[in-house]
Design goal:
83 residues; mainly alpha; Cytochrome Bc1 Complex, Chain D, domain 2; Uncharacterised_YmfJ; DUF3243; YmfJ/YflH_sf
Length: 83
């Protein structure tokens, strides 16, 4: 995953692929958002940000409540799922 995190554009492309795969397999929006939240929790605990955008997202994630984090996760999914 480290090469995926080198640039924010690579991270967005990676996330977009995963969202598309989830949608193609029949996953609903709520389930995709739940998975995005779980990914955010993992990244906060285990991954050092590789660029300024990721660092900002991590800092926002850290100060957010659980509800705000869920909103951030949904927004990231929306960001990469623009058609």
């Amino acid at each position: 995953m480290s090469t995926v995190l080198e640039t924010f554009d690579k991270w967005k492309a990676f996330l977009a692929e995963r969202v598309n795969q989830a949608q193609a397999s029949g996953m609903g929006e709520d389930m995709i958002a739940k998975l995005a939240f779980q990914i955010g929790e993992f990244l906060e605990d285990k991954v050092d940000p590789k660029n300024g955008e990721e660092r900002l997202l991590q800092q926002l994630w850290q100060v957010g409540t659980e509800e705000e984090r869920k909103t951030m996760a949904r927004m990231m999914v929306k960001l990469v799922d623009q058609k």
